[in-house]
Each structure stands twice: as structure tokens, then as C-alpha cells.
User: Fold these one by one.
Assistant:
Number 1:
Amino acid sequence: MPNPFALTKSMEGDVAVISLDGYLDAHTAPQFEAAIQDEMDGGHTRIVVDCAPLTYISSAGLGVFMSFVEELREQDGDIKICALQPKVQSTFEVLGFAEIFDICDTRQEAVARFDEPHAATVGEG
Amino acid sequence: MTALERKFTLHVPSSTENLAMIREFVSNIGTQAGLDARDVGKLELAVDEACANVIEHAYGNDTSKDVVIRATFDADELHIDVEDTGRGFDPTAVKSEELDKLVAARKSGGLGMRLIKTLMDEVRYEIEPGRKNELHMMKRIRKA
């Protein structure tokens, strides 16, 4: 039984973009966790996670976002999430992630959000 | 449950690699039971979470163990039981902390059970020490 999941990384200026494709569950979440850790180890604290091709997410995947976001924000960075498919978006919403994370419609919008002078970090203050 | 109920059972080795197979199994049953696509998605996620808890917590990723998923449905209700013989870990007893507190503590625990309770219409847990543990979940079948 295939459990297709793929992850690609790129840079847009000083923003690291991680694109998730397929099924992010307890089996595949460690790959995502390692990818974010790699970015942080490389000094990248501005991260966009592009979910356009992501068709499924369970709490194991959501937990990866949760475990890194605070540390990134303490270093003046953030994880911004973009292009959620409706099914994946509903899982984010069930858990109230929209109030904690900055979720954008497109990758361009998410990348640009880092350069907004007074970009509000969702969930703070 | 009526006399017209139908029963299905899946036994799989306790490995996260098999979560895809488990999701496929329950999705097919949910569709056959008459759930709409949205509820099939909820069922798929709830059972994934329940089985991932068993694999990682009850069995501690011991792949020599089996996870058993039993599904029964009639015209009104779909019941799923996830059974294991591992440690008597009661996921329903996990305290649901506020999301912002979990983030501040860099913890991701408890999200799975929070999802299960939200996605299913009934959730309960039975422990028989040394024999088996069962998480019972029920989804009502909405009439079109």
C-alpha cells in the first residue's frame, strides 16, 4: 500500500520554502520535521510551507508545525502556511490552527508577508 | 444495530507504514455505509489518529504486534473499534490543553485525541488489563 509523500525545498530571497506533496501522517511526518530542522540548522528562520499538493494531514503533521513555531518566532522568524486544499484546511480549522498560524492563500503572499513592516504575527498579543 | 448490520475486520502489523492501508480500509467502508465524502474524510482521520496512538504509545512501535480494526454498520450508525493488546494507555484521559499553551511549551501532544473527539459522534475506551484495550468510535449516518 503506497503512502506517497514528497517534500521539496527552495529559497525565495531569504525565505526557505518547503513544499509538501501527498500524505503527511505519523509515517511521513519525521521527514517534514527533519526538513524544518535542516533549515533552522542552516540559519533560515523565515519558512513558508506550501501545501498546494498536500492531500492529507493528521495530527503528527500538525504537531511538526507546533513544535517549531515558537522557537522560530523567538528568532524573529516564523512558519507561514499557504495554499491549503479544503480537506486539509478543515483539519487545521478543527484544531484552531488558524488562530495560531499565519495562513495565506498563495506562496507569493506568504513570502511577501515576511517583508510587511508591521506584519502581525497571528496569535500574539 | 439491526439484523441488517455488516461487519468487516482488518488486522495489520503495528507500523506507521500501514496507516495508508488502514485509511483505505475505513474510507471504503464509510462510502459503502453511505457517509458523504466529508464524513468519510472525518472517519479516515479519526481512525488514523486512533491507530497511530496504538502503534506509537500502546505498542511503542513494536512491529511484531497487531492492530485490529473492526467496523460494523447498519442504516443509521457506523461503529469502529480499534483493538490492541499493548500497554493500557487511555487516550481519552489525555488532558486537552489550550493550543497556545501547547505551542508555548513546544508540545504537540493530545492533538490526535482532540481530533477524534471532534470528528466522531461517540468515543469511549475500555481496558482489560493484560488482555485487550479497545477504543470505540461511532459516526451517525446522515440521511441525504
Number 2:
Amino acid sequence: MSARRPIPRWADIALLPAINLILAFLVSGLVVLLVGENPFHAIQVIIYGAFGYGDGFGYTLYYATNFIFTGLAVAVAAHAGLFNIGGDGQAYVAGLGAIVVALALDQTHWLLAMPLAIIAAGAVGGFWAFIPGYLQAKRGSHVVITTIMFNFIAAALMVYMVNRVLKPATTMAPESATIAVPGRVPQLRQFFSFFGYSPVNLSIVIAIAALIGVYFLVWRTKFGYAMRVLGANPTASRYAGISNSKMIMITMTISGALAGMVAINEVMGVQNRLVLDFVAGAGFVGIAVALMGRNHPIGILLASLLFGALYQGGQELQFVIPGITREMIVVIQALVILFTGAMEGLFRPTLERAFMLYTPEHKTEAVAVSTAKTES
Amino acid sequence: MSQNGPMNPQRPETAAAFVPANGWAIELEKINRRFGDVHANKDIDLKIARGTIHGIVGENGAGKSTLMSILYGFYTADSGTIRVNGTPQAITDSRHALKLGIGMVHQHFMLVDNFTVLENIVLGAEDSGLIKPSLDRARKELNRLEQEYDLEVNPDAIIEDISVGQQQRVEILKALYRGAETLILDEPTGVLTPKEADDLFRVLETLRKQGKTVILITHKLREIMAITDSVSIMRQGQMVATLKTAETNPEQIAELMVGRRVLLRVDKKPATPGKTLLEVQNLVVADDMGVTRVKDVSFAVRAGEIVGIAGVSGNGQSELLESISGMRDQKSGHVLVKGEPLSLDGDDGAARARQAGLAHVPEDRQRMGLVTNFAEWENAILGYQDTPAYGAGPFLDIAAAKKAAADHIKLFDVRPANINLKSSLFSGGNQQKIVLAREMEQDPDVLVIGQPTRGVDIGAIEFIHNEIIKMRDEGKAILLVSVELDEIRSLADRILVMFDGVIVGEADPATATEGELGLMMAGINSKAAPRGLGIAEQGPLP
């Protein structure tokens, strides 16, 4: 190890992620160059597609809504030291809760249907995560294994439920009956014509409320304190009289309920019915979002917007530049995850050294050290 | 003892001109190192004569470890010169330090548990991609080293099967194998039994005889007096003195370390025990593996007395403590606080124990007593997070928690006095004060303390001991478990000796000799105690 100093906080939370992001885009640019397209044009298309006009921005926000929910689900569990990678399955199964309430109440008013659907979707999603939580707390089966297994169970269960239970006899497609207009979650375009035909809806308000709620839960309540003690040091939590098994079960339930909110956005806000695979991998993106957002609501908000933009910009890119296929977009997204998540610490040492050299008060010392090195 | 080595002690005032017979092994000049706002090493000058054992003492946080880390290449000094064998060097990393003949034996061993001794010694110093030639060469070299330094270990034993003392030898051999001429030992006796410590000192003397230089970092003054040729004392990042061991005494060193007069003995009035507050009845406890570690233990602790449980570490004391404090289920038996049996089943037994008025200072503060990556104020409420004092209903009253933390810091003189600092950045003694403050300030009726001063410096030990006595005089029942016999003897009003999960005897600290207690700790309950030569069997503290 050579001479280093801790980098300032602003560099830690802003500069370092920015550098990582730029690097991810540079490497992505090389990939784009390799397939014979102009990377500058590509990035222009992505940015314009994601933020440049109302429809595009609306789509970015719509994707981000899902990612906020799944990102929070992963983050809440992570604070208690649990790695919930079953967000996908939890969100999927939660669709059952949402659709049952929505279909039952779709002749009343969305103001009645939505809160009840939130409770129902949260309960079902929460239950789907509670089982792995229970198995870990009482039987010692690791949630990483069980949650991913529950994703598969969820997929099979939903195929059965949609085809055998929810599908009206009159349709051929594997989907539930359509929710009548009064029970649908209002679209933002009904209030702001700016959003064009994009599907962003009032669920985004729920997402923002969830961000604030999670902040309060984790940092302002006794429960959140206990959760963080458990996550940081399970022996200390036992010492502190915290019931680790109870905490694991409750935390997993909260995590699953958050993932379940995806169903509100998709089922009641966008599709207006329950379709197969409506989660479309949002649960897994949530892992990357939480990783990049460092399990903090603000970070999760920013990371969700980034991934929402990548999703929407990517769609646009594939549309505008046919040479760049859907798979290429996945490669770019993977690179972003790689550089901002997995290799987050790559530039830390360099940055620490750079800050030592270029902050004036340390410069002379640093120079002295490096000269001493060359002399020996 | 200090006359054994070929040594010429330096005197600080004439150090510049004076050169010992064998020359200087290490010379440090004006070493500075800062960590953020903390000036960990301030203009440190230190010269270590070749072929001597040089002790470095200082309280936790005095900068000893930083200084040694700089010497070992783990940190780079901000400024200053290091000379090894008279040549200026800029030590860039530990590999470089090793090349210069500086080896280090860390407090926590850096060994691979499921490798053999030989494999551990070769690890990182292999000759080629193939392991066999390296191992063969190492075996030969190891034989030579073992004979030369009288360091016996079985090269084919698996690390996890050998004792801690043996593991330490492996660490020493590892350094010697890599050609170390100067050996830095960081708190080497912290993990050893008294007998193992004696063996270690014998090894160190052999090393000195063979011309090696040993730097011994410790806070045990007894060890300094017994083995070193000279001693350097650090305080608050500065080198305050370098003395010839033969010309000084423990009181002087302690005073230099702390910066004021220190009482090495605890002053206390005779106990006035009241009614029984803690009672343990026929307690049987198993460890995580299901092995019964506490076997039918019964005793009582009364108000206003300290009951000490002595014993060699690993004889069931940990399980006893954890069971009484509600962290571990008992197989049978009862724990009664103020006559009421505690229900300790389930995994939140500790909460119920606290409600009953039992506070617990755990043996291992970093693993149990603190969440080390929490801010200090967050740890000030650990275990009491659900009490109304720290927030109504489900909400956490951060202001109240911070206020409690600030009060604790003030009352217990925790340094640095910063409630927002990450707990892992406090020194061992200050971490212990954080835990003690938290538990004592809740005004419990029963206080259960494990290893109150493990890894804690002298100044803090004095403080902690006085606080414990103060609690006793306030009429609390205190159960003290410690492997430091001196500590038990000076604090406890009654001593219970634990061996193999059983209380094998009770002793009066005023009359029992160390030899008698030592025999009881070894499972031999006899009055006739032979006296050995090693320092472990020396009489009471100086």
C-alpha cells in the first residue's frame, strides 16, 4: 500500500459514480464502434430518447417507477443483511392481489380501488417473501436460494392462475379480464399533456412515497435500528435482545410488499389486466439499482432514473439505428452494472492518490514521499 | 535478565553521538503520520540497537501500531526518515520490509487454518509454480531454523489442530524463513496462557542470543520488565522517553505512559454484601456445537459484592455469561434476578434479562457489545433501543440517543469525544468505555461483566476498575469473569474458580496465593502450590 488519503465526501458520492458511469459508456462506445456504428450518434439517440421529448421522458419515468419499487425491496432486505433476489417472483405473484381487488371494485372509483389494491398486492407480495424469510429464520435455509426458487414457483403458479382461473371464457389470450375505466389508476397524461401517450401513471407518486417511507423506516424507527443492527452484526443484535428470527421474517415481508407494488403500476396503471410475465425482469434490475444506489433512497431514485433512461433510450436506439440490436442494449446495461456496481472500487485508490497529490496542503509531503521512493 | 544480551542501552540525551557495539538495526527520525485530523505519529525518533529486545509501550491510540505499520511498510510516513542498518530506506510495502529483513508477527495470526505448518510457511514465498520443490526446500530450512532457535513445531500438523502458542511459533518461523533480522511482535501474549507466554519469552531470548533484534509491543509492564533491554514509551502520538529497562521501574513507565501518577493497585473498602440479587441454580449450558460447556453450576451474587470467576479461557465461562445474560438457551437450571426466574428461551432472551435489571458487558465488545460500523451515538442505545427513553412508540428519538451518547462520553471520558465517529475508529479502551457507560448508566441491579479490560490500556484499566468498585459500593451485584488473574484478585470480594464447566472451588482473594488459584484453574484442587521460574508464577503485581 502506498500513501493515500480518504477522499472528500462529495467525491465519494458524486465524482466516483460519475467516473464509473463515464467509463461504462466509453466501453459501450467501443462496442458500438465494433459493430460499425457511430457511438456519439448512439448516445445522442439514447439521451434524446430518454429525456428529449414528453413521450420518451414519460416512458423513462414509467420504467423508473418499477425499478424504484424493486430497488427498495432489495435495499430494505439488504439493511437487515438479507439478499432478497426474489423481487421478480414477489412482484409477479402480487399481481394476483392487485387484479382481484381491481376487478371486484372497477365499477366504483380508483380512489377506493387503488388503496385496497395496494394493500392486497403488498400482502400477497409480502407473503411470497415471508415464506423464504420463515424458512431462513426457523429452518436455516438461506434466502438467496429460497427466493430464487420462489421465482420459479411464482412463474409456474401464475401460468396456472392466469390460464385456469383468471382468464375469461371469452378470450383466447393468456390474460385476465380487463379492468373497467373507473378502476384504473389515472395516467399522468390526463393531467399533463406533455407526457403524450406514455404509460407513466399515478403509481409514481406511490413510488416517491415509498422512497420517503423507507428512509423513515430504516433511519428513524426503532424497527429500522434493529434491522440495521441485525444486518451489521447478528451477534450484537442477539446481545441487544433483538429477536433475529422475528426481524428476518418481518423484513422479508416488507421487502416482498415493496416488490409487490410493481403490480399496481403494471396491472392497474399500464396493462389494465393481468398478463403473463408482466414484471419483465424488473425484479432483477432492482438488484443492480440497489447496488448502485448504495441501498439509500436517494441513490435508488437516481439509479432507477438511470436504468429507466437506459431502458427507454435503448428501445429508441434499436428503433433509430437498426444495426444496434436489442441484445446490444443489454450489453450496454450490463456494462453499466459492471462498472457502477461490481467494480465500484476500481478507481478509488487512484482517486485517493490523486487527491493527495493535488490538494495543496498535502502536495509538498506527497512530493517528498515520492522523491524518497525514487532515491532508494 | 537484561544483562544476557550483548547490549548497550542508548541514552536519549546522547543518542546522536552514541553508537552501540552492534550498530543500530533500525533508526527512525522525525516520523510523522496523520489520519485525517488525527496526528497519529508526531516527530517520532527511535533507535533500536541490533541484537536487543526493545519494548514499545503506550496506551491504546498512542501510535505504537501506526509506527510499527510504517516500519513494516503497511503505511507510508507523511515525512521522516527510516534507516535500516544505517542505510536510508523508503519502505513501500511489507514485501519490501521483508526484503530489508523486517518481519512482523501480528496480534491476530495471518495463517490459513486448514493448511499444514509447512504450507503456511511457504505461502507467498514459493520458488516456482510447482509447490513440491518449495516445500522440500522449506522443510530443510525449517529443520535448521528449529534447531538454531529451539522452536519446535511439527511441520506436517494442520494449523487448526495446534495450540495458539504453537501457531505463534509458526508466525515467528514464517518471518525467520523469509530472512527476518528484526522481528516485530504486536501484543504477542494477549492470546497466550501464562505457560505459553513463558515459552515465548524463552524463544525471544534465544533469538537475541543469535543476534536477532526483537521489537516487542505490549501494554503489560511485567513483560517489559522481565524481558526487554530497553523500552520506549509513547503517549498521544509522541515518543516521550526511551529508557534502559534495568534503570527504570513499572511505576515510572506507567506514569510516562499515562502522563500522571497511576495506581497499579485498586483501592477498595471491604464489601458489605446485602441480599441476594443474582442466583444461578444448577445451570447446564451447551455451546453452538451442542457440547455441554457449563455443567450444573450454582452460585449467588449479593448486593454490594463482586464475585469473580477465574479460569483459563475456554472452560465454560463464555457460555455461562451468555446464558445468564439471555443470549444462550440453557439446557436446564435457572437464573434468578431479584428472586424472579428469568425466562431466557427464544432468541430475544437478552431483552428480558435487561428488563429484569441485568446489564451485560460482553467479553467480546467488537463482536457483541458494539456494532463497529455504527456511529458512536447509535451504539449508545444498543440493547435499550426499545425503551421509551429513546423514542415514543415505533419512532427512534435520535436527539435523545445523541444526548445519552454525549453524556456517556462525558462521564466516562471517551476519546475522541465525538458521537458521530464510527465506533470502529475508537481505540479498544475507549470502545470498552462506550460499552461500560451504556450498561452502567442504565442503573442496573445486576451487572455481568466479561473481560472488562482485555486489550485496554493502563490508564483506562484504572478508570474501569474504579467504576466497577463504585457500582459495587452503590449496592449492585456484580459478576466478573476474567482470565486476568491479577484483575480478579484485585477486584473480586469472592473468587470462584471454573474448570471444565464446573466451579471447582471458592477462594478468598485476600488470602489465596496465585499458586493456589493457578492449581485450581488447572483442575487440581490442592493447597500445596509449587513455584516455577517463569514470570507467570511471580507474586502479586509490582
Number 3:
Amino acid sequence: MSNLVHKEASLLEVKNLETAFSIDGAYYNAVDKVSFSIKPGQIVGVVGESGCGKSVLSLSIMQLLPKGNGEIRSGEITFEGVQLNQLSDTEMNRIRGRDISMIFQEPMTSLNPVFTIGYQLQEVLFNHMKISKGDARQKSIALLKSVGISRPEKLVDEYPHQLSGGMRQRVMIAMAIACQPKLLIADEPTTALDVTVQAQILELLKTIQEVNDMSIILITHDLGVIAEMCDEVLVMYAGRIIERSDAESLFYKPMHPYTELLLGAIPKMDEEAGMLSSIEGMVPSLKNMPETGCRFALRCPKVKPECSAVTPLLEEVEEGHSVSCILYETSMPRKGVKP
Amino acid sequence: MQVTTVKESQLKLKPVKSTSPWALARRKFLRNKLAMASLLFLIIVAILSFLAPYLTTQDIARINIGEMSLAPSGEHWLGTDKSGRDVFTRLLYGGRISLIVGISCTLLVILMGTVIGAMAGYFGGIIDSMLMRFTDFVLTFPFTVFVIVLNAVFFGKLNGLLVLILVISFLSWGSVARIVRSKILAEKENEYIMAAISIGCSPFKVIVKHLLPNVLSTIIVQGTILFATMIVVESGLSYLGFGVPAEIPSWGNMLSSANEPDVLQSKPWIWIPPALAITFTILAINFVGEGLKDALNPRSRR
């Protein structure tokens, strides 16, 4: 995106967010001291393996954490000057779907099987607008058209089971953009779709983003998607942001060993066929998370003895490129981005 | 070329309106012969019962000493009972009471059970614990003893039938609440529930509009089973003399005359009609329930 965009005030600001789940009475941070901000019109990608806290992060922003065991323990989520984690449920309901909306991973289960497509689309409109039934129907047809569905007049009266996965994801997108939100959180929107449909959906998201000038948080574990879509990338590992940069420099100059390995794991067309490279081991579970030191130390090929003793901070190493790894701490004068 | 034209004509023949899950279930149910026959039987029973004043001119309460314990004849189709009252007339009026008690208890029980179960299941946490402990508490009441005591307490002060309906309902909603709660617990994990919250639906809206329609099939099937149970409960209590007040005929009341060995052995026309009425009604309700269960289960294909 242009530099102009980056100078505006941020739309969403997350500061020191800690989201924890209670297991056997004790709390474990699934998202640990995460800070970032999103400017209007920006597409921010969040990548990481499964279990890195990407989805928990998005649920925290939407205040959709499972009641009872998931909880925001500290930190601030500020959206347009309003602190979302201080709002009551009723106040949050006014924001959800109107200012911030969300697309889910599984289009097959994200639509209610007992209602028609049109009914579910109109529900968003009725929730947030004063609109007559006839107008709502017209608007829902227009919305379906805008997400590239070819026979919207018929589709409004159909049920979810009559639609393919790609179509359902389009309907989900139509629902999400119905009230022209300022921020769209897309939680792995293409993971459940096949490759050709994936490209179409991404294309659609990008078009809608340009037309409506909204910001998108795109959660994915597909680096190809990131390269295609995003202005800025957050790499998450075990609940922490370990690298933050614009999409281009992340691909040309990955800094954190984890990012390097992630990029190395992408199969390449021009290489000899052989074993796919992968990262040894797994993300430690919440209960087994090392308390001090770098959380990637156990799997890191460049590990040093002090890695497990010193907790690295996310520091800006180059203009617009921050990384949290002790390999880079001495390379520059300390410029702590976050505690 | 030939092939494409055939396909196009086929496309045109397709029904335009898309079938809702309910329409599919209805079609499946209509094809189930046993369930349809049972439904027809129930409708006939209901019509006969509710049109009783027009079908017979006999007085249900008047004791007629001259016509005690008459065998079936042209004048009294099913004979008369020990007080000289026409059995056929009492059977029709009795059906009325049985059906009214059955339907109103079922509706009340379903209403209470659904509200409490849905709230407990959706909100979870402390609300769930409190509502479910209350449910356990109600379920531990000894049913028969409770009904007998309450009936004795309110006897003569309130409309006996109303007391009976309220007491039965209040003691029976527990199991429905548990079933609804467990269904809601499973259903609320679905992504479309989170999607509904994410478009700004209030908890009330999520429960009523998104969760309940998805558990409605269970509630309906549960309702038919309850309906049958409630008729049995009413008959049982009336047979024991603790149900419907004695002056109102009900199938259970009528059966209680079979207490006497003389009636049981040599005057079968007095107790066989209500016994058969209860049996066949319960059977028919269960067949209808079974049919509904099949029709509403997306996995059963017929």
C-alpha cells in the first residue's frame, strides 16, 4: 500500500494483549503480550502453524472467546478510540457485524442449515439498520451479486445444503460486508476450499477491500496467500508475534529462524522432487510452554545456550521490520517496540 | 446437440421452489402409512370426543337407578355402568378430558423444559448449574405422593382439572429440560452459532432464532412421547381416584369401576371400552411419534 495510508491514525490497536485459557483451574496464555495496529485500508496477514494463537487473537478482537474458560487477562483492544474489551455484550453486539465482521474457516458449517440464504443475509441488515422487508430482500440480492454469484434472485430462496463450499464462502463474505464494516477478520477463509476456488475468493476479498476501503486481518497458514494479499505480515509462534514486517521484505529477507523455516517449507516448482522440508517437532502445548526464554528455542536450528534463559523482545531491526530473536539484538542499538 | 436439448427440458421440469428441511420431513411423514393411519385415528378420536354433546343426548352425570349395569343394547350401545349411566356417552366425554389433560400438560411441560433447558445450555456456567440443580430437585419429588397431597390440599378450592394439569406439568418438565440442554450444548458449538453472534445477534435472538429451530425436531418427538405419557399418567391417577374429580368422566375414572371383581368378571362392557380407548390412543400416538422421528431425522431415508 502507499505510504499515505500508513500515516493515518490506526483503526485497530492491540496493546499487550494476553488471552488465557483455564486448564484445571490455572490460566495459560494462548496469546501472550501481543501488540500491533492496523491502519484504515490495510491488509494485515497473520501466519503461523496450527496452535500459534492466530484464531484466539481474532476471537479476542471480536470478543467471541468461549465463555467460561477463555478470557482476556490484560491488555487493550482499541477500535476507533473505543476499548472493545471494556464494552458490555449489548454494546459489542452493535459493533459486531456493523463495524467489525468476521469470516470463518469452515463455510460448510458457518451457515444455519434451517434458514434460506436470503433470510440469513437479511438478518444482518435487520440487526443493524432500519430497513423494510422488501428493501432488505433487494439489498441481499445486490450483495450476492457483488460477491460474484450469478443467479442471486434464485439463490436467496435456497438453503445452505444446496450450495457448494465456494458458494457458501461467498455468501459468508456477503454477510460479512453487508453493513460495510471498517474491519474484516478473515480466519483462514480459503483453507477449506479447493485451490481454484481459493484464488477466486482471495481475488474477491481484494476487490471488496478496494471498493469499500476496509481493513482486513487475514489469518492463514498459507504464505502464498500472504504474498498475494497483504501489506503487512505478523508471524506468530506459540502465542507471540516473533516477526513483523511488510510482505515484501519478509519474503526477501526473513529474519527469524522460524520464518526462514516456514518459507523453506513451501514446495518450489523449480526444485528436484524429493522430501518436502518441514520444521522438526511441534508447537508446545499451552501447559508445556517454556516460561522463560524464546519459545521456539526447542526447535530452532540456530539455537544458542542463552536462548532458553533470555526472553527476546520484538525489536525493530530495520525500518518497518521487527523481529524477536537474540541473534539480532546486538546488531542494532536497542529500540524496544514493546516490553 | 440432442443431449443438450434433453437436459434443458429436464431443467425446466424441476420444481422452482427449493425444498426446506421441513418440507422434506413433511413429505417423508406423509409417505409413512402406519403413522398416517395412526394420525387419522387420533383425529377421529379427537373429533368424536369434542363433538360429544352433539353425538349423544345422554346425561353423563345423572344417576339412573332403573338402568343399572345393563348389557349393550340398541338404546345403550355399550351398556350402562353401575350407576345406570351410558358407557358410550361417558367414553366420548372421557376422551375429551384425557385429550385436554394430555395436550395441556404436554404443552406446559415442553414450554417449561425448553425455556429452562435452553437457558442452561446456552449460558452455561453458574446459570447452568443453578437451573440444573433446580431441575434435579424437581425430578426428585416423589411424583404420585406429591400429586395426591397437592390434590388433597387444593380439593374444592380450585378447579380440580386445572390443579391436576398444573401439578403434573410442574413435576414433569425436568427430563425435557435435560434433553433440550444437552441438545443445545452440542448445537451451540457449531460455527454458524458463532457466525450469528459475529453479525451482532443478541443471546435471546441466537437462542430463539438459531438454536431452537435446530433442536425443534427433538422437541417435537419428545412432545409426542410426552403426550402419550401424560394420558397414561392422567388415567393412572384417575383410576386411583386422585386424578380428575369423580364427577367428571375420564377414561381412568371409568376404569376404576373394574376394581370390583363382579364388574371385572361378568360386566366387561363397563371397563373394556375405556381400556381399549387408552391402549389404542397411546399406540397411535407412539406410531405418530415414531413417524415424526423418522421424518425429522436427516439420516433416515425411506
Number 4:
Amino acid sequence: MPLEVRERQELAISDLLDRALNKGVVIWGEATISLAGVDLIYVGLKVLVGSVDAVHQMRFALRDDASTDAEELM
Amino acid sequence: MSVLQPMVYAYGIVRLGSTAGLPGGSIDLAGATFGRPRLLLSGSLAAIVSDLRLSKGVSLDALLRNSRHAEQLVLHHHRVLEELVETLSVLPFRFGVMFKDDQGVAVALEQNRKALLEAIGRIDGATEWGLKIYCAPDQLGRRLAGEIPAITELETDIASADEGKAFFLRKRLKSLTEKEIEQAITRCVNYTTGRLDTVVREFAPGKLQPAEMHGRGSEMVLNGACLVDRGLKEGFFQLLEDMFAAYAGFGFDYEITGPWPPYSFADCQLGGSGRAA
């Protein structure tokens, strides 16, 4: 059995969410969050960010909607 | 949140002079239309951005509260970056960084130029690879049973003991086996991560995922990110092939994912003043 390598399209959504929602550069502007009309708006996906629980929750949501997602993302 | 004017969505930052084709085409995701990605120059830096327009009646908050739509948006963010990452050193933004207009992007880059250049220097010429190690404790336990004299002796004693004594010996055997399994896992993880030093620029340990998330019958014992120079990719793969060959018989399984934009090595939050927030 060879070493398992998962590239690109095979990447797990849980790994992606862990990275794209929790890591990477953030620049906070002088007036960071407002409803409109500020120099910089940062949307933190507050209902989804951060925890394993949240990622877990999404994983199951995605599994349920997997076929629809695949079509919409093409 | 209602956004009537188009915003500027930011994916990542590159050094000016970096040459690579940006992914083409605009895309509509549930009423959020991302324009064709473009480079926005600011001094020696360039941000990879696109214009984001929301259809009438579509709110960003509502999109983000819908897990399916939110995932589509995150995937879009990632796919723009992953198109570039194999050939270009891109400092990825965390998902969801948006600016009011191009001027807002330029000001943010200008104010944070020094920190951003340092952050790009950290990941320059390298890509991120995920490394996971899984362990099947039952298989490891069986393998250890044949190799550790104390376990073999206890098993022999149990076979010849009366039921009362065997009960306590079994408890001792269970405890000893669990301890040996734990130690063997630690040795495997430490040995693997120690050997990575020769082919990995940086290693960042991450949270272990529960079985219901990774979907395997085994236990995740390592979940890390490796920053690997592009020229050392083959050496990195070969090292892990060797590790896998050495440990597979003990119930360990290795998985590599990637290449990723170097999210795990671009984990900085900068303030509008140019200082770390």
C-alpha cells in the first residue's frame, strides 16, 4: 500500500475550512467592521469560524447537500 | 448586511514582479458575483483581488449563515489561490477580507508594507503540505504484544493462572498495553517530525481531528502543516514514504495533502496603522 497523497480536488473540506477560516493574513482597518461605508469590512464567518464543532457541523451539512454543491460549484 | 456598491474582495498578496496568469472568468455564487481576479498594485506589493457584487435582495450575512453558500464562497477563495500556489509565492488572506474600494486595498498594503514583505519572505519559494498520521491501536497493540517481553510474560501468566488471578493480570495487561501503545505513538510522531527538519522549512502542528471528522476507523495522532521549498518536494515525499514503510506494519498510516496556499504560515493579523493588531 503506497503513501496516500491527496491533491487539489481530493482535499477534505474540513482541512480547507481549518485553514481558510482560521489562518492566513488579516488586515484590520481603522474602522474594521461596520454595516456599510467603511474602508475595510472583515467578515469572519462568525457562525462558522474556529472550532472543530463548527467544522464538524459543516461537514455533515455538506454531506447532506453534496450532490447539489457539486453542481452549483461547477 | 446590505451592500449596494461593489466591494473589492482580496485573496492574497504577491511581490510586484511575480509573473503568473490569474485564473480567468467571473463566477456567481448564490447571488454573489466575483469578477475576474486582477492584480492591484501598491508599491512593491500587489494584491490579488476581484470585484464582488451582490444581486438585489442578496445579503452577505444571509449567505454566510447558510453553510452551503458559505462553503461555496470559501471554496472560491481557495480555488483562486490554489491556481497560483504551485508556481507563485502568494501570501494568502484569510477568507472574507473585503475592502470598500481599490483605494482601501492600496492604503492597507501601504500601511502594512514592512510586515507584509516579512510575511512574504517567510513563505517565499515554498508551499504548504498537510501531514497526517493515523494509528490503528488494535493493530499496534497486537504488534507490540509480540515484541515486548513484559506483555508476552503477562499473557503466559494469564494462560496458566486461575480465574481470580487471571482477572487482575488481564487488567494489568490492558493497562500495560495501553501505556505501550501511547509510548509507541509518541515515538512515531516524534521520530517523524524530527526527521522532517532535513526537508521542511517549518512545521506547524495543528489540532487533531476526531474520527467522525476524518472518517477513518483509526485514530489521528498527528495533524500538521509543513512549509516545504519547491525544490525539496521530492525529498519531502521520499522521507515520508520511508517513514510510512517503517511504521505501516505497526498500524500507522501517513497522509499528505496539498499543495496548499501557505495559510498556516501566514497567520498574522495586522492593524491599519501597520502594527500587528
